[in-house]
Predict the 3D structure of the following.
Amino acid sequence: MAHIGWEADIRKLGSAWQEIQRAGGVSHPMYSWEWVSTWWEVFGEGRRLQAFVARKGGEAVAIAPFACREARMNRLFGVTMAERGVSQLVSVDLEGAERLRDAS
């Protein structure tokens, strides 16, 4: 069973991110920790970065970063790679995510 939670400081996830990328055999540079962390350093001003992290046995098995601005929204949208080479648009119900977080 995976535990899903929010990480306030995504910088702590660098090594886990790299391990997930290696284990998944994903080599595209835009999915790398270096790309994401550099993007955040350049474009992150005025935003709050959080990551949705799924854990199994205490180990991170999936990480989805979100750059948040102060605005009233009920959904977040992003792109994930469901399988190698296939990108997929995903959305997260924020109220549902908060209920999951509060229930854990």
Notes: DSSP finds three helices and five strands in the chain. The two ends are 13 Å apart (CA to CA). The beta strands are 2-7, 48-56, 59-68, 75-83, 86-93. The first strand starts at residue 2 and ends at 7.
